[in-house]
């Protein structure tokens, strides 16, 4: 990640636990997986996260158990290091610097226990042998696998299978049909090596599985084919004894093939989402599948799901805004299709899913289904508004209002409004809550914005509160784009093309209009606290700041702003700006247009979703350039669905110290338990000896 003086951009909470295949320990008690710059150790029985192994400075890219010590695990990272951990105590043992920054994986090599032997190059990958571990630096391969005897590496890309023999330093290339429709059907998707036989299994885009033999000869190779999956095979894995081959794909079904009798197969269906990786415990007692929705499923005895470890769901895209639930401090955004997920960033685990659409999702391409496209929470977390949409021949839209239920500690549907607008809804937002009234505003491409008012029933009626339309606004038949309330709720700003209209929610009078062409307003943001008199508007070319007291332009600057965001606890505003292939960040106060923090090339692609999450306690000891992070933490989503945030140096030092303290306490606890156990055994033996001596004395006295 990029660095900036006192801050670093890191994966912190909500990272992808399905980024690489997880590892199951020798005794099947623990499951180890990567999670951003961190490594997590889970209990396979309780789903509890036992340890966070922290130390890597960049993304962790591979894991493998230490072949010489089953209580240790190796990890590799884009920071160019291999680290050895004691995963039972959560302690870092050794760091090896390789100076390599290519996305990589790790594989253990039987019989190799020597120190580092340096690098060699196979076809499309570099290999580095170190402490019995092969460090593969992969050049954009689809998949690769190492023979369990360490004789060869099999890798696939596009329509070609490559087999590289490590000892002979030679490779063979096997290609399937590479032209027209045949190329897409034959494309390799995954690969696995048999643990005992010279057999390589490959998955393909048409759902077929091929078993390759005699591949040490480029012209006399053979393969057999089996077929069940209706689409591409995503994952393959042999069991430790090689008696079964496991496969998975889009169907969310784990298929178990009998090796040598591939006509016989068993199925474990309804695993929830597409299977991405499959691993098996060393003793074969546990199967583990990782899924495209950032979930890991633990399967016992081949037939029963015994544990589910759910991370932050990373779908194809987030259509809602990123929100923070005021009650639970959880991050709220799109989850499974048709759902919103509530994810605790503090505990780094999902709290629950809320089914918005309440219809069965069918996993089929080109099928129009309802999806959640907008969501908003009021400032107290008492109400949730959602917009669901289906783009069939005619756009179908529903606006739903959900009330928080204290008994169930979740949201319950209160009001459903079918066809709230005649066109797609581009924005919804709540007014800052007051005890007297709550207002929701929706903006639509039909040329109108509507205000929805919460109506309280008569105390004598046995009815619930409900929502109804209170006002419909427009401006010269222009198409509105976005809206926002001022911090105190006394003003509402709605953009219509190049014009910003300012309304009074108390009377719904139009107070003033602001304009600064060229370019349509894409985002609006009121200033906070001492900067509450300012209103910011962003186009694809300019960022403008208006003074609402004088109704005049205060300043403007040429920026391509993709997202404008105000910190609710300070005067700071974050502007994410698109560069050629990256995103830049500027943090400023509306009263002072010169930014007090800026970072170029923050990440690749455009950032269109971000949120300020309030901290439980303000940070201390930050440098001046990072003091904007004292009250709130800024999270943002990249174009490839990575959740990133800023980590300050004092915060990082405190986390590392806390991690070390926890590890030391756990070690002392284990030593105490061990000592107590030995003491108990010693006392028991002493007491037993005394009792035995007394019995012998009594027996001797009786005999004499």
Descriptive overview:
The chain has 704 residues and is mostly beta strands. Helices cover 9% and strands 49% of the residues. It has two helices and 57 strands. A five-stranded antiparallel beta sheet has the order 1-2-57-56-55. It has a four-stranded antiparallel beta sheet with strand order 3-4-5-6, with no helix packed on it. A four-stranded antiparallel beta sheet has the order 7-8-9-10, with no helix packed on it. The longest helix has 55 residues, at 649-703. The radius of gyration is 30 Å and the shape is globular. The N and C termini lie far apart (87 Å). The mean pLDDT is 86. It is found in: Nucleus, Nucleolus. The chain crosses the membrane at residues 678-703. Keywords: Membrane, Nucleus, Repeat, Ribosome biogenesis, rRNA processing, Transcription, Transmembrane, Transmembrane helix, WD repeat.
Provide keyphrases for this structure.
704 residues, 57 strands, mainly beta, four-stranded antiparallel β-sheet, five-stranded antiparallel β-sheet
What is the gist of this entry?
With 704 residues, the chain is mainly beta. The protein has two helices and 57 strands.
Give the helices and strands, then pairings:
Blueprint: E1 3-4, E2 7-10, E3 23-24, E4 30-35, E5 38-43, E6 49-54, E7 60-65, E8 72-77, E9 81-86, E10 91-97, E11 104-108, E12 118-122, E13 125-130, E14 133-138, E15 143-146, E16 152-157, E17 160-165, E18 170-175, H1 180-186, E19 188-193, E20 200-204, E21 208-213, E22 222-227, E23 233-238, E24 244-249, E25 254-258, E26 261-268, E27 275-280, E28 286-291, E29 295-300, E30 304-310, E31 323-324, E32 331-334, E33 339-344, E34 349-355, E35 371-377, E36 383-391, E37 395-405, E38 410-418, E39 425-430, E40 439-444, E41 449-455, E42 466-473, E43 480-485, E44 492-496, E45 499-504, E46 509-515, E47 523-526, E48 534-538, E49 542-547, E50 552-558, E51 561-566, E52 573-578, E53 582-589, E54 592-604, E55 609-614, E56 632-637, E57 643-648, H2 649-703
Antiparallel strand pairs: 1-2, 2-57, 3-4, 4-5, 5-6, 7-8, 8-9, 9-10, 11-14, 12-13, 13-14, 15-16, 16-17, 17-18, 19-20, 20-21, 21-22, 23-24, 24-25, 25-26, 27-28, 28-29, 29-30, 31-32, 32-33, 33-34, 35-36, 36-37, 37-38, 39-40, 40-41, 41-42, 43-44, 44-45, 45-46, 47-48, 48-49, 49-50, 51-52, 52-53, ...
